[in-house]
Design a protein that fits this description.
heterodimer; A: 459 residues; alpha+beta; Heat Shock Protein 90; 5-stranded mixed beta sheet; two-stranded antiparallel sheet; 11 helices; 7 strands; 9% strand; B: 126 residues; alpha/beta; Rossmann fold; 5-stranded parallel beta sheet; 4 helices; 5 strands; 19% strand; globular
Chain lengths: 459, 126
């Protein structure tokens, strides 16, 4: 059994999906071809004044109908295709398509005059297409068979064994019985066909090879990126160790385990503790991001986002009270579909959004969390009446370490990694996240921000 | 008075943790590597073991915890970790990781004291 899969196809997923797409494209094209054939027959009779015999007409319309029929059948059997070398796969569909098309073309040529028919040029088109999807030797077999069959039919007509169906009104004298004409035409036909296959095959192989090389490089880049992330994690960990020790001593001193402190010393040490805490939360954020980037698999489970969000807002209730922020969670859903996701990661993502909303919203502000759904998606929007984000910076907000210009160096401490973490997590869940400012809760003094997360519903 | 053994390769963490715990009246013994730590636990029969997750090798702490459990030492174990659970390091209290509680570094004195007291209470209840 010869392998139907070309040797260059290492990246099976891409290979199969390309093949599937091409097959579908050819099926669509064939519906067009059937329409074109029917209209060509009609226009030949009415515009070019060519006379078709009753047999020819019947044959041509039957062929048109057959093309439509087997094309519908192809659409139907496409659903049973499995992308696996052992099963009924897209290559088989390609083979079936190619065989049927070549057979139909052979018949078309026969019923329109054999060697006299201009339709034999369509063979060129078919072998080029074949060379694009099938392995070389299969296409060469097809070409050899096509040339042999075509030659056989022509000479059977020449010998009078097969009836000749010339188109009357096309030629001033018949040519199917002219051996010199046949030899010249057939040899040119064979030459063009073989050259087309050789050239197309080479170009296609070269293109495929380059494509596969690109995929290989992409794989290498991905593993290099993973290595880099691991390295970063290692280094950042090493930095955290001495900082943790430093923080522990500062805690002990400031909490007076070693005795009373001079007021000035205490103030400066408190600042030191704040600064070292900043460094540690930055490190924790970097570790989080690296870890998420390195995660191969998510721990998927069915999650109710409404429950998750009310759990997270409960956890933050102290902070809502502290800043007298009024929170309203609006469940606007028409169904109660669940999300399939990693609970821990989604908790991190949404608690980041809620914490941000609290952090950047002033006293007596408002935060709205709206949850709505469509047939396939769940949309969660966290709006606040906070400081907002300048219009021209909205597109940078998801970058690592990005902090909006209106909050930098102010009382808001942050690492600029929060939204980047959110984006990583939501993207891993095949969702989308976007930010708008001003939000629907804008006030005279504050534009507010709205972060919208769209997550696919579990099926 | 409850006896606590702290095993960590960072002398400053040992010092800081000892300071906090001795100030609360606990008797603290320290060890800077897993081998010494194991011996001291056998010799001193503490009421609580505090163990750093990473010593010479990452996972040293886990291995040591398993070693204690295999030797039928049921003393509660509090583990110091450098990465929180939130970073996806799935530390779960259980069979694979036979420890009773985790504290993420940097360790705040209150958190340390409250977790130590909680574990000791469970110990007495047992």
């Amino acid at each position: 059994m010869i392998s139907l899969i070309p040797s260059w196809a290492h990246h099976y997923d891409e290979f199969w999906s390309t093949l599937r797409k091409r097959n579908l494209w050819f099926i669509k094209l064939r519906f067009g071809a059937a329409v074109m054939l029917a209209s060509a027959v009609l226009s030949a009779e009415f515009l070019l004044n060519l006379k078709l015999t009753a047999i020819q007409e019947t044959a041509l319309y039957t062929i048109t109908f057959s093309i439509l029929a087997y094309n519908v059948l192809l659409v139907y059997i496409r659903q049973f295709v499995k992308c696996s070398a052992e099963a009924f796969n897209p290559i088989h569909i390609s083979l079936i398509q190619m065989s049927l098309d070549l057979l139909v073309l052979q018949l078309l040529c026969y019923y329109t005059g054999g060697i006299e028919s201009p339709l034999f040029m369509l063979f060129v088109f078919h072998v080029i297409i074949g060379s694009l999807i099938l392995p070389g030797r299969i296409v060469y077999t097809f070409v050899t068979a096509t040339i042999a069959a075509f030659t056989l039919v022509i000479y059977l007509e020449y010998a009078g064994i097969l009836t000749h169906h010339g188109i009357s009104g096309l030629l001033s004298a018949p040519l199917y019985n002219n051996n010199a004409f046949i030899v010249l035409h057939l040899s040119m036909f064979a030459f063009v066909l073989i050259m087309c296959v050789v050239i197309t095959n080479r170009i296609a192989n070269e293109l495929y090879r380059m494509e596969q090389e690109l995929f290989d490089s992409l794989d290498k880049l991905k593993s290099a990126e993973a290595e880099k992330q691991k390295y970063i994690m290692g280094v950042v960990h090493e930095i955290k160790t001495p900082l943790s020790a430093l923080q522990s001593y500062l805690d002990i001193i400031l909490e007076k385990y070693l005795g009373p402190l001079d007021e000035k010393v205490e103030e400066k040490l408190s600042r030191s503790r704040v600064r070292s805490q900043e460094a540690i939360s930055l490190i924790d954020d970097i570790l989080k991001i690296s870890k998420i980037k390195l995660m191969d698999e998510l721990n998927l489970e069915k999650i109710s986002i409404v429950d998750l969000i009310s759990m997270l807002t409960d956890r933050q209730s102290v902070n809502f009270h502290k800043k007298v922020i009024s929170l309203s969670i609006n469940n606007l859903r028409s169904n109660d579909g669940m999300i399939e996701g990693d609970r821990l990661l989604l908790e991190i993502a949404f608690s980041n959004l809620i914490n941000n909303a609290i952090k950047y919203t002033g006293y007596n502000g408002k935060i709205d969390i709206d949850i709505s759904d469509t047939k396939n998606d769940l949309t969660i929007t966290v709006s606040d009446s906070g400081v907002g984000i300048p219009q021209e910076e909205l597109n940078k907000i998801f970058n690592d370490f990005y902090r909006a210009s209106n909050i930098k160096h102010k009382e808001y401490y942050g690492t600029g990694l929060g939204l980047s973490i959110v984006k990583q997590i939501i993207t891993r869940h095949k969702g989308e996240v976007s930010v708008t400012s001003p939000s629907k809760l804008k006030t005279a003094s504050n534009p507010g921000t709205a972060v919208t997360v769209i997550l696919p519903l579990a099926v | 008075m409850s006896k606590i053994i702290i095993i960590d390769d960072d002398p400053d963490i040992l010092d800081a943790s000892s300071l906090v715990l001795t100030s609360k009246g606990f008797e603290v013994i320290t060890a800077t590597n897993p081998e010494d730590g194991y011996e001291m636990v056998i010799k001193n029969q503490p009421d609580l073991i505090i163990l750093d997750v990473m010593m010479n090798e990452p996972d040293d702490g886990f291995f040591l915890a398993q070693k204690f459990r295999r030797a039928n030492i049921t003393t509660p174990i509090l583990m110091y970790t450098s990465v929180s659970k939130a970073t996806g390091m799935d530390f779960e209290v259980g069979v694979m990781v036979p420890v009773d509680e985790f504290v993420e570094k940097p360790i705040s004195p209150e958190e340390l004291i409250s977790k130590v007291e909680k574990l000791l209470k469970v110990r007495i209840a047992r």
